[in-house]
Amino acid sequence: MAGPLLPGPLVVAFVAVLLPHNQALPHADHGFTAAVSSQENAARQLLEEIQKEANQHCNTVKHASWAYASDITEEHKKQKLSATSEYQDWYKSTWKRTQEYNGIWENFQDSQLKRQFKLMKVLGSAALDKTDLDELNALQTEMVEIYSTAKVCDYWDVQSDFWNNTQCNLQLEPDMTRLLESSRSSYEMSHLWSSFRDQSGRKIKDLYKRYVELSNKAALKNGFQNMGDMWLEPYADDPEVFRESVIQLLDEMKPLYLQLHAYARRKLREVYGSSEIGPRSPIPAHLLGNMWAQQWNRPDIFTPYPEKVSIDVSPNMKKQGYTAKKMFQLSEEFFVSLNMSKMTPEFWKNSIIEKPEDRKLICHASAWDFCDKQDFRVKQCTDITMGDFITVHHEMGHTQYQMAYSHLPYDFRGGANPGFHEAVGDVIGLSVSTPKHLHKMDLLKVLEEDSEADINFLLSMALNARIIFLPFGYVVDRWRWDVFSGKVDPENWNCHWWDLRYSIQGIKPPVKRSELDFDPGSKYHVPASVPYIRYFASFIMQFQFHKSLCILAKEYDPQDPAKPLHKCDIYQSTEAGNALRSMLELGASKPWPETLKSLTGVDHMDAGAIREYFKPLELWLEEDNRKHGEHIGWEADDIYCEPTKEAHLRKSIAEASAQEFLARYNEEAGEIFNDVNHAAWNYNTNLTDHNAKLSSEASLRISAFSAKMYNESLLLKDTAKLSKSTKRALNMVVGAVLPDDDIKNYTNIRSNMTKIYGSGKVCSDKENNQTCLSLDPELQDLMKNSKDFEKLKWAWEGWRTAVGRKLKPLYFEYAELKNKAAQANNYTDYGHQLRMRYESENFEEEMLSLYDELKPLYELLHSWVRRKFYNQYGPKIIKLDGPLPACILGDMWGRFWSPLFEFLQPYPSTDFNLDATMKEQGYNVTHMFNMGEEFFTSMGLKKMPPSFWNLSMLEKPSDGREVVCHATAWDFSDGKDFRIKMCTTVTFKNLQTIHHELGHIQYYMQYAHQPAMYRSGANDGFHEAIGELMSMSMSTPQHLKKVGLMNDVQYTKEDTINFLLKMSLSSVSTLPFHLVNDLWRWRAFRGEYKQEEWNNEYWKLKEKYLGVYAPVERTKDDLDPPTIFHIANNYDMIRYFTRTVLQFQFMEALCDAAGHIGPLYTCDIYGSTEAGKKLASVLSLGSSVPWQDALEKMTGVRKMSTKPLLKYFEPLKEFLKKEVCLKGDVVGWGENIQNDYCKNMPVH
Which residues bind chloride (predicted)? Predict the structure, then answer.
């Protein structure tokens, strides 16, 4: 924008009025004419004297204003107020001198002299008496200072440190602006949006009331009904005529705006879901990438053809080492190429083009004219972005205008109307932002010339202000017109603001507003008293300018489809530059319609050029919205602003009550959870009836606590008025519970299931008292090491007979009770409740979609493994086009295939068997855990507390007691007691598991400061992914060499394939396994299967997705799913599916933070404190934010993606393709066989 307007003459300096053309003088006799001539000469001399004084006064007050705007201090504030006051005193006395010619100047022969007097007719705010004027100046200064110095807390700091021991130092520029552009977290954006308004607008409201009173008082003294009418004087003698013309223009643009709104709403809904933005609702203002939603800056969401080259060249600017100075130099070069002026030496010496670190300043970009024909400046806190690159050209456009009219009398040094100044800056931006121009600047490496690239560009231009801005530009001043005119009283100012934003823009606030808020005051131009309709006018006129200049530059021909208006770049066209300069040199010396006509040939604002520019986009949007059945327009889905303070007070009371409830829950829950975890630990580490009883009693206590808190939560009032984060917290901690009898029954069932699973044994011959085998380690060792098919089948069947058949009736009861509890909490069934922990109604479909992307890799791995087993067992057991028997895959469930590595490895000469090496080097369990801890501390993460070493069960007890050996990490909810339970033996697999479990402990410790309801992973998959990525990193040959388990790391092709195959056997192979176990549960719980068919349906899913079958015929007595720990003990397994996807996303992000160069599979984050900082910042959040927010903080994306995993395993995938096809094997099994898979694969 142009520099700030000063009261009095500076209004004149930037203003023009609409005068009738060829105004005739009244008939008069010669004597009268002679008298007028004499007075005319005297008037001319007076104005010449005034001009000299004006230049000096203007220079003085501009210097004082600049000093304050560029360094906000009390001293500079006093100097500015003093200079402004002196200036206004001078102007008021000068104005009185000109009033002597009232009734005379209208008859002057000199049209320019007449225009000068007409422009000086309006005194402006200086018409107030000194006391009122000083008060008005002080009010405006104070409001701008509040706005400019507003700071808010970082959202992530607040969430990481729930008790608010954070520094709140984020400023609007550049901090909040950058965050709103880059963040995809609805919670973070809502926090920034509302916090900024709390710190700016709300503090300005009471000041603004007095400002309105004084402004209207000044308007009345100038002959206007109110300040809104006075602001419109530069555009038309009758303000209503101008208002009607604006409404007409807005109506002409409405069809395109409605199409854009519908398109943007759908794209946002695809990201944030219907709960955040409905199919017919207005758009939440915080989601649009801009503090005021005046531009919709979400290219990653809105771009229709993302595969095309991005026209946001910000990354290229940074890559090419752009600086603020270079951006300004390139802007100057653009104008010079048009035969326009270079910047003056004073410009380069005095401008502020980067934000100083040593002071507060008003960062809002502005161009300044110091009224001496040499000193022109720009003040801008420039960021290295494409947006700021355009802004630099815009501000320099103001400076070009200021230099072009600097030869004119002082009264004519301004835009033809206030919109002209903005349009001149923006018209250059229309050329600079074209792909053609960016390509010329080497900022866009590839220039794509097709319809898809055109639509991407036009949509970007429309959303980044040009179209989207128009209703906002109108709303800001429409609201002020209504305020100044008294149409709306102060008690309804804020709600009127939101009525306008809803009805005209289709925008709603992210949180409910009230009359305690003052959201208009959070837009700079409102506290700064800058009329805003100028920007609306500029957005219309700039396209009129652009069209005319493009014709002169021969860049646009309405008859030539190859030269559309939107591709025009006037760079280096002296014809266009000369025409533009000629118009600029007129300044305000002519009525604005004449000035407009001098360039465009028309004397009024017209939407034809802007509609023509965007016509291809409008047609595309109509078709796209029609194709998707998108509703055009919007309907209210809530009350967005409470009209009374009492309503806000009720909301505040409700919020305070809910926060008090949550604080009480946090205090009591810690003690309850600690008690329950101790009882559960004692039972899991010593399976006795006594401990079972104590564990059950503890579980009943937590059920009673949950019931108590749920009943108390029902007493909370006005919960619909609660903040989004408070609602989320309540949903996490309270829920309906089962009746007491059901709770007791459920607790007994769970206890019995745990005991049956933990004490399960398989005995070969009870009559001869042969030793029975427990699951860990005997049966697991057998499944891992044996290649005897009959023995494997015996163990497999025996475990399911010993455990599954006993669990079956209990599991049926368990499922019934879990469904009953879920339905009491408004879920359709327990599976629905489990899925909603991932905060998505479409979670099942999303997981199946992810698996479809991973399936080709799994099927290749399956084919490779099948061929190996075929060579081992022959065609009687293994069919080369069929599924695999489930008992041969390396553990009791065929979950992890990693024990089969030696058997499966492609290049047996490369030794990856590390168990023997560990034993040779004297490894023991304590050393293995110390190694794991050292991995974490090398990254700057936390050490284990002493209690960990004293209280954990790291090995299977030798005192004969029965324990649940399944490795688990425990958090005792007191912030200091963290343990692992694991029957560790000296194997590399157990070393990996140690790193995994310590990952859980690290997560517990990082979020221990959070309230009880947030002490968990962002989602269940996060917890598993953190541990697994540590296992993945410590398994790399580089790391194994660092710790002395490998001697050399060469990474030959053979080494690489062997390593990737080994890693795939503990990750890729598990994907369908984990998916199927929960697919089965979800479908069973929702009644999709009859209970008697549960086991049959389970094996159908296993064969369909895993390509495995039961090696022993299953009977009506069997129920195999609960024979795995997680199903028997109420753990969902989709966490491990999501874990495997997430761990590779995390790995990629942490390797980038660590500065890793090379393939992802060679990355070891050991020792990287940068990776550790990034990891800790996410772990410390716990579940205080939605998991999508945590994922974005870690990786920069909000969705689970298979791309990093597939990239990691790409060499293995290509190897398997070639090998499978070389052997003539098929890919798939049963109905999934791909017989023509190798059809186009060259065989070497």
Answer: 235, 534
